[in-house]
Structure formats: C-alpha cells, structure tokens
Design brief:
The protein is built from 20 helices and 46 strands. By secondary structure, the chain is of the alpha+beta class.
C-alpha cells in the first residue's frame, strides 16, 4: 500500500497470527480477547528466544461503553447540552475509564504472575508491560513463536489469547503487542519516473509555477524543482484548495498545536531546509514513545507529513510523536502506545495520521482498543485525520509489483484507522489543474481499465467490515447520497442498518502530480532521491486536512471550543452548503486490482472513493465554526457594594433561534433577565464571586463563559477640613481610604462644595503611606467644580490637600456656613481602582 516503499508481504485479510498449539490456562483462569487467525502462505515458525524482551500493553474495558459512546456523540452534536463540553484525560478516566476496582484487580493479577506493570494511563484504560518472552508465556499461559514471513521479516505469534484470573479477565479488553504480524504501513507513494516526466512536460504545473496566496512562498530552489519533479509547491496546493482567504484574514494557525503520528524517524536538517526555503518558523518538538522510532532519515513519510503541514499552516506548533513500529527491532505495542500517548497527554487539538493497515489484518480486539482511544479523543475535543490507504478498494492487497496476491487479497477491504468511526478518513484524488476550483479525478493508477500509467496506487475507500455507520453519515442530507446499497449492514453485522463508509473527505494523492518536499538531503540513503522531490499517496492528503482544521480552530469564531471530532461538523456543512464548501469529484473509481468491477465509483455528492470531496478551505472553515452557539465572554467585573450595576450578555446562534440566558454564582442583590441577558441590581455583600453564564438555544445547545466578579466596599472619606489661610483663601483637606475587598486607588474625581471652585492646577499635595506622592489634574469640568486627580502610584489610602492656589471662592469669600462649620460639608469623591481595562470601582460619598 505504500508504493515504492511497500513491502512484499502477502498480507491477507487474516494475516495476523495464528492459533498454534497453546499452553493450557490454569484452572479458574479465563482468556481475554481473541487470538488472531492463522497466517496464510509459507510461514516458517521457530521458538522465540526465552530472553527476548517485549513491550506490550494491557488495555481495559471502559466502565460503561454505552455511556461512553453516547457522550462522544453528544459532545459533537449541536443541540446537545454537552456540545463541545470537552473533558480532560483525568476527567475522562474518572467518568469512563475502568473502575478503580477493575484496575486494581488487573494490576494485582499481573504482579501475582511475576510481571511488573507500569503506571496506569490517565484514562484508566491501559497498563504497559515490559518483560521477557518467557515471563509473558508463563503469566498468560501462551506460547510465543517467531514467524518468518515471505521475503520480508520476522514477526511474533501467540498461540492463544492471554489468560487472566477470572476476576481480572472481565476487565481486560486486549493485550496489544503479543502478535506483530500486521505492522502499520506508511501510506506514501513515490512517482514512476516515466509518468513523472510525462506530467512535467504537460501544462498543469508549468502554467502556474508560482501562486501568491498570502501564505508561505517557495524559494527559487523549490520553484525550479517543482515542474521538473512533477510536483506541486505548497503555494500551489494552498491555491487549489482555497486557503488564501484564511491567510488574508491573518490566520496562519498560531496558537494551535498539531500532533504528527510517526512510526519512523526523520532528519531535522531536512525539515530545517524546507523551513528555510519557505521562510517559516514553525515550532517543532519530538516526543519519543516506547524509546522512539530510531534514528536516520526514515523512508520519507515523516518528512512528507511535517513539511506539508508547515507549508499550509506555518504558525502551528508541531509535536512529532515517534514510536516503534511492530516490524522494528523492538516488536510490541508501539503503534497503539503512540496513539495512547497523543490522546492521554492531550497537548494537541489536531492529530495527523499517515500510517495504516488492512482493517481485518489488525484484528477485532486491537481495533476495539483503538476505538475507545478515538472516542476519548472526541470527548477531549481532538480532531483525528487519517489517510485511507493507497491500494484502492482492495486495502488488504500489499503485493509488490509483478507478484500475484492471493485471491483473498483481491476482495474489497478498508484501512484502519481511517475506517474507525471517530476518525476522519482522507482519500485520494488526482489534481489535474489548480483552478480556481481545481480539476480533480479519482486517483487510480492500478489495474482498472483505462487507468493512467505510473506507479501503482489508488485512493483507499469502501465499506468497513467492523463498524456500523456513524450518526454523522446517517444524518447527512439525502441529496449527498451517503446511504448506498453497497453499505448495507450485512457487511458489518448490522442487519437492517448501514456500515461505516470510507473515506469522509479527500485531497490530492497522485504521485504523478505530487507534493514537493525536501528529504534525504544528506544523501544518507544512497540510491534514493536526495533533496527536493515529489511524493504522493494519501499520506500527503491527510496533513492537508490536518492543516485546514488547525486554521479552522485558530479562527476567532472557534476560539471558545475547537471543532474536535470533525465528521459531524463536516457532514452538516456539506448538508447545508455543499457547493461552497467542497469540490465534488465525480470521475473515476478506486478498483485498484480491477477484480471488483469498478465497484466504488465517484459520483455527485458523497462516494466511497473521495468522500465529500476536497475542500474549499476559506468557506468550509467559516462554516465549521459557524455551527457553534457562542457567548461573548464579558470579562472580569469589579463593582462596589450597594452600587447599581448593569451588564449585558451577548451571544450568537447560527440557527437564529431565541436564546435563554442563565447565570450561577451571581453576587447577592444582582439578578439576570433570562430573556434579554441583562444583569442588573446592587451587590449587597463584598467578596469575590465566580459566575458561570450560559446561553441556550431552542435546540438546547449551550455556550458557557466564566466571569470573576469582585465586589468591594465603598471608599471612605474622613478627616475633612476646610479652613481659611491668613489671607482668607480656602484650603480643603481630606483622606480617602479604599473599601474592604477593594483594590488600591489610582484616580479620584473631586467635586468641591458650592461656593468653592477649582482654579489653578498648582498647590495640590498628596500624602500617602510611605511618603508624599505626586499627582496632577487631568481636566476641569462642571463649572470649575469637578477635577480628576491621577495618583503617580496606586495606594490604599491617600490624603489630599487643595491649597489656596487651587481653590477660589465665589463672591470673594468662603461661605460663612461652610467656614464656621455650622452646616454639613458636601464633598463628592469618585474613586477608580488599579484594575486597568476592567469595570471601574466607583462610589459617591458625602461627608
């Protein structure tokens, strides 16, 4: 399935591993999961070395699978009270993971049988184990063998499903890594030199060697290499798929983290050369899993994934998770553990996956363990996109050119993980012209009648044999043609229903019009292409969609919550605005081997070849965000006890329905009008309040914001004196102290009594704790009776003197009643606090 990087294994749908003559389980024990079917073809078996160390992972059953599935759907469905209320891994574990009792039972059983379990994952659904083959054989009552698969490599086979005590067995879903006969494959395809030369001579690339998109622009070396390599540069891909509008709005993905799933290494200087050419500065970090994926330049898969993402979303943060594949020198659970690390660390919003394997070869137990992880990702708000495979409708075919695969490999089959219900599968097209609005057909250069010559390959797609059709597809508009007779439920043991169709979307994957990347620049692999080169395969299509979702999450309209599990949003967008959001691909089929009569053919709307089609990114991103009910965060609030407040909540709902507002934790004395969203009243107690405000529409969708509301005491004015100097001029002195729970004072607005007015800006002094402080008038208002004074430094108490030069009297003298103190002195002071930019703390005080 990987074109030039393919291995010649005869990977039948039941390749994974056989039931040998198993060691008997102890009395009272029960086996968890199921052993895989026997490998076909000539297979040499030998006893495994007793001391060989294996890394496996025990996966546990969630405590309530039905509740888990329901929440994964609800969190992705507008109208649900749980819509986009994402959980953290620890919250997920507490709610949906295995119960503490089940975790303890499994760990105790492992220890009792001589194994040393590692830390339980944050989701309470997996436990890692490292030990010798002998230790695992003894603990699980199995026999492990090494298989020599034809022309390729060694693998490990278990004679039976592992045994546990009866108490622990019911909590175990699978033990991943005991069978290693079906490794994940990189889904890249290198171009055939003859087809590449023919394409380079055509007009598709040469007519548009450079496109100004507002995004990253290639250097001269890439511009010169693109046509000769028959490959598109990043600016051309961005132009074809409508990224320019996002770039023009300043959306380059800043603030969004993307995880790249890799089972091979890459050479950082290759990535640096690409960034230097495009003048990008993406932050890239590597996260090793189970010891990492080794060292070297890899096969080009990792470089393709990383560089495609950088070229389309240059400001994202990339976390490259590298784990060992099960065909490496350390066979075991590396592929599963790499997914588990990405999801349990929950550091990335988007996950890009360009590795896969035949669904049936993976086995149901391992697929179920993966599925729980992907449900968890949906509940955490993570979007997973995965390449759908490069062997067309016959995904279990992995024969090298010139070899005849067994008949079982010529039947329709799909690729995991793209076939998983909570993963967005990305199929392959052949991008013939950039457009605007590209010209595309199905990518199929295999054995189908009329297929173009070139490196064999075709975009994966078809019907899952494991999974029922998810609601996102079931609920799509009838005009999209999702419900196909080919997806009848008999294929996946869902009688009367439908099966999951793959892919969901598509992008260019044809290596004859591939993606220009920089790989093997050091020539570490002599005989392989070095430097700038074109590569195709659905491996390249997946990061195109990962980049699009990253730019979508970076839009202000999606700021409250990321898109998360993308399929529901994609099918809703297609149902409502298909022509504006997607490029419909209607020509071709993906019958790669020509053995299924062109069964999966493209057509209007959805098809099991290119899904909904390729993106028109600017419009689609806006529609993905527009599906959310949003509430504008009002910001933190400060107010004064017994002082009237008014705060207007604002929310937006794409359905246009009337909204209902709710608030919890408001200060006493303040209330919310549920219909208008206006908060009014006078706080009755000082304190700090955490207020949650909700907006809810007619479909019960809810958006939430949190407000920190501080209610402070009113400022106190004391020690007020008004005296006359020897010349008869007035001098006004008073002290202002901040109220309880109120912040420091920064600004005072003073209104002097009748009979006095403010004159000069001189002769004003301030005495604050710690010594004198300087101040100044800002302005004079209200017939020279009001002035604003700004303190040079915030303080909780300040004494103000307005001297003779600052004050004057009306009529030439101080009113006798005021001067003699025979009536109250009316002095108005409003105080602002030190919380710049927030609602001001104000109070009017008389003394």
């Amino acid at each position: 399935m990987a074109g030039g990087s393919r291995t010649p294994a005869r990977l039948a749908c039941a390749i994974a591993l056989g039931v040998l003559i198993g060691a008997g389980a102890a009395p009272g024990a029960a086996r968890a999961g199921a052993a895989r079917a026997a490998a076909t073809g000539p297979v040499a078996r030998t006893a495994i070395a007793a001391g060989e160390r294996l890394h496996v992972t025990v996966t546990l059953r969630p405590r309530d699978p039905a509740a888990l599935a329901a929440y994964a759907q609800a969190v992705s469905t507008p109208g649900s009270p749980s819509f986009r209320r994402y959980l953290t891994p620890s919250q997920f574990g507490d709610r949906f993971g295995a119960t503490p009792a089940h975790v303890a039972a499994v760990r105790d059983d492992l220890i009792a049988h001589g194994l040393r379990p590692g830390p339980t994952a944050a989701d309470a659904l997996s436990i890692p184990l490292v030990g010798t083959a002998t230790a695992f054989e003894h603990a699980f009552s199995i026999r492990l063998s090494e298989l020599s698969l034809p022309g390729r490599r060694a693998a490990i086979a278990s004679s039976a499903a592992p045994a546990f005590s009866a108490t622990a067995a019911g909590a175990v879903q699978a033990v991943v890594g005991l069978d290693t006969g079906s490794p994940a494959r990189p889904l890249l395809v290198r171009p055939d030199p003859r087809a590449m030369a023919a394409a380079a001579a055509g007009a598709a690339l040469g007519a548009s060697p450079h496109v100004v998109t507002g995004g990253p622009q290639p250097c001269g070396a890439a511009l010169g290499a693109g046509p000769g390599q028959s490959a598109y540069t990043a600016d051309q891909v961005a132009s074809a798929y409508g990224f320019s509008g996002l770039y023009g709005a300043g959306d380059l993905g800043a603030g969004v983290t993307v995880a790249v799933y890799e089972l091979e290494p890459d050479d950082p200087p290759d990535i640096a050369a690409y960034q230097s050419c495009y003048q990008t500065h993406a932050d890239i970090s590597y996260v090793p899993v189970d010891g990492g994926a080794g060292h070297g330049v890899g096969a080009g898969e990792a470089a393709l994934d990383i560089e495609t993402l950088i070229g389309l979303a240059p400001d994202v943060t990339l976390l490259v998770y590298q784990g060992p594949n099960s065909n490496s020198g350390a066979p075991g659970s590396g592929p599963f553990d790499t997914f588990s690390a990405i999801i349990n660390q929950d550091r990335a919003r988007i996950v890009s996956v360009s590795w896969g394997q035949c669904e049936a070869a993976l086995g149901r137990a391992d697929a179920d363990a993966e599925s729980v992880l992907f449900e968890q990702a949906a509940i955490q708000g993570q979007s997973i996109v995965a390449a759908s495979g490069d062997s067309g409708a016959e995904d279990c075919d992995d024969a090298s050119p010139g070899t005849e695969p067994p008949q079982s490999q010529l039947q329709p089959a799909v690729d995991d993980p793209s076939s998983q219900p909570y993963v967005t599968g990305v199929g392959g097209t052949s991008l013939q012209a950039l457009g605007p609005r590209p010209t595309e057909t199905v990518w199929n250069s295999g054995g189908s009648p009329g297929a173009a010559s070139g490196q064999p390959g075709a975009g994966g797609g078809g019907v899952s044999s494991f999974w029922a059709m998810p609601p996102a597809q079931l609920d799509a508009a009838p005009a999209l043609n999702v419900l196909s007779a080919l997806a009848a439920g008999s294929a996946c043991a869902n009688p009367g229903g439908y099966c999951r169709e793959v892919p969901d979307v598509a992008a260019n994957a044809d290596p004859t019009h591939g993606y220009l990347i920089y790989w093997n620049g050091s020539n570490a692999l002599p005989g392989e292409p070095a430097g700038w080169q074109g590569i195709g395969g659905t491996s390249a299509a997946a990061p195109v969609w990962a980049a699009l979702l990253a730019l979508t999450d970076d839009l202000p309209a999606c700021a409250q919550a990321p898109v998360g599990y993308a399929d529901p949003a994609l099918y809703r967008a297609a149902s409502e605005n298909y022509g504006a959001d997607f490029n419909d691909v209607t020509v071709g089929d993906n019958d790669f081997t020509g053995t299924n009569g062109g069964q999966f053919a493209a057509g209007p709307g959805y098809d099991s070849v290119t899904g909904l089609g390729s993106p028109f990114a600017s419009a689609l991103a806006a529609d993905l965000c527009a599906q959310s009910l949003t509430i504008q965060a009002p910001g933190n609030q400060r107010s004064t006890v017994h002082t009237a407040v008014s705060l207007q909540l604002r929310a937006g709902d794409p359905s246009g329905s009337a909204l209902t507002y709710l608030a919890r934790g408001l200060p006493p004395g303040v209330k919310l009008d549920a219909a208008s969203g206006t908060i009014t009243g006078s706080p009755q107690r000082t304190g700090t309040y955490t207020v949650r405000v909700d907006a809810r529409d007619a479909e019960n969708a809810t958006a939430t914001a949190t407000v920190r509301w501080i209610v402070g005491g009113a400022p106190v004015i004391s020690r007020v004196t008004l005296a006359t100097t020897a010349t008869g001029a007035p001098r006004l002195t008073f002290t202002v102290t901040a109220g309880r729970n109120a912040p420091a004072l920064t600004t005072l607005q003073v209104t002097v009594p009748r009979g006095l007015r403010l004159g000069s800006r001189r002769a004003v002094s301030v005495v604050a704790p710690g010594g004198p402080a300087r101040l100044r008038f800002l302005t004079h208002v209200s017939r020279h009776r009001t002035a604003t004074i700004v303190l040079a430094a915030a303080t909780s108490s300040v004494r103000i003197t307005l001297g003779p030069a600052a004050l004057s009297v009306q009529g030439g003298r101080v009113p006798s009643a005021v001067q003699l103190g025979q009536s109250p002195l009316q002095l108005g002071v409003e105080v602002s606090d030190a919380a710049g930019g927030e609602s001001r703390l104000t109070a009017s005080v008389s003394s």
